[in-house]
Amino acid sequence: MPKITLTYFSIIICLIHLASVGKGEKTEMQKRETKEYLYLVPFDEVSTEVLHRIGEALKEQLPLEYKIMPSEPIPRSAFNPERGQYYSSLLLHLLAEKYANPGRRVLGVVDYDLYVPRLNFVFGEADMINKVAIISLVRLRQERYGLPPDDKLFMRRVLTEAVHELGHTYGLKHCSDPHCVMFFSNSLADTDRKGYHFCKHCLKLLQAQINKEK
Ligand SMILES: [Zn+2]
Ligand SMILES: [Zn+2]
Q1: How far is the CA of 7 from the centre of ligand 2 (A)?
Q2: Which of 16, 21, 38, 153 is buried most deeply by CB count within 10 Å?
């Protein structure tokens, strides 16, 4: 069994803090010529526009060129009728079996609610070994909480989740800096204060891993 790192509701929701990454560091990242592929894999129906926006935004944060793959039919076996949710680890395993490759990272995107046993739900999950991750969009919309839609906030949350989970695929663990994307957030408020940028320490670890993988 691959070692799996979970990102929960309490962990995942993080938001933008643009000041947390220095301009010089970001420029250095953008200078990289060797880029790896990120496969974005939707399960069932996921907005193509949202997938493109995720891919484009991730290019600013990580040295990845994205490809949007055909939609995967979500297996019924992953659905738990009592919970009305899909079992995240099973979907992650399916992604790893089909797409895992040393030269790529994979991000599954689901517009259904996800869970793992013993937790009410998860926003995402990552498999560090196979460099595969998955995120759910469902709980990131303001409408979910009876509030008016906020597309900008929704996309910030989506990106924060995506960067956090992909950060785990670079071997990053949770960070104690509340303004770092790898921070273990306990609430939506934490998330909305947090950003999708890495702190200097995590950025250093990230760059070391990127160099190692070259
Ligand atoms: Zn995490
Ligand atoms: Zn950090």
Answers
A1: 15
A2: 38
Q: For residue 9, give the ligand nearest its CA.
A: 1
State the catalytic residues: 165
CA of 65 to the centre of ligand 1 (A): 23
Q: Which domains does the chain have, with CATH numbers?
A: 4-213 (3.40.390.10)
Rounded distance from Cα 182 to ligand 1 centre (Å): 6
Cα distance between residue 180 and residue 123, in whole Å: 18
Specify the DSSP element, H or E, that contains 66: strand 64-68
Q: pLDDT 10s digit of each residue in the chain, 214 long?
A: 444 444 443 333 332 222 233 333 444 444 444 578 999 999 999 999 999 999 999 998 888 999 999 999 999 999 999 999 999 999 999 999 999 998 899 999 999 999 999 888 888 999 999 999 999 999 999 999 999 999 999 999 999 999 999 999 999 999 999 999 999 776 777 777 887 999 999 999 999 999 998 8
Tokens of 60: 């600013």
Closest CA to 31 of 53, 66, 63, 67: 63
**Does the global pTM surpass 0.85?**
no
The ligand with the least distance to the CA atom of 178 is 2
Q: How far is the CA of 187 from the centre of ligand 1 (A)?
A: 13
